[in-house]
Amino acid sequence: MATHILHHPRRHITLNEHLPVDHRLSKFYRVGAGLTGLVLLAFGILGLIDKVGFFDTGDNTIAGLNSNGALSVLSIAVGLLLFVGMVIGGNFASTLNMVLGIAFILSGFVNLTLLEREFNPLNFRIQNVLFSFVVGVMLMFFGMYGRVSATLPHDNPYWKGRHPEQAARDAARRARRQRGQGSEAG
Questions:
Q1: What is the DSSP letter of 146?
Q2: DSSP type of residue 151
Q3: Is 99 helix (H, G, I), strand (E, B) or coil?
Q4: What is the mean pLDDT of residues 45-60?
């Protein structure tokens, strides 16, 4: 019955498999990192221009979100890190988007517990928590796109990396078809 599963070697899949440098997915990862980095950088710079205290917990809003100096500096740092990911591109940008996406989602949960408390070092309010969740999901989408799915197309480099035998058979089949078409044209 299921004995074929026991005898088939299971391949360990990692997210750092090779992606060709010029692959179209790299542009998608770069755009995601760049756009998100730009939003965070703008938010952080506007917060610093407003000269809010570093750990101030008042009603200091920037673009509808509460802020303070610490959150502004953190936003600038993460925005710059996303710009680095945009410049490097490829697997690095994808993995960075995923890791920072998880960090934003976790930050949303942590800061949700700190709402209305005396200790709220980043001056989060509910709109900041929601923003953190939205940015986290957006970064996760930008990082996972084309990498994580049960229905990746067979020309996808991640699918090829996870199914090398099938990819080799598909390539051989395409080569035979091209040879057959070439001899008919000649």
A1: T
A2: T
A3: helix
A4: 76
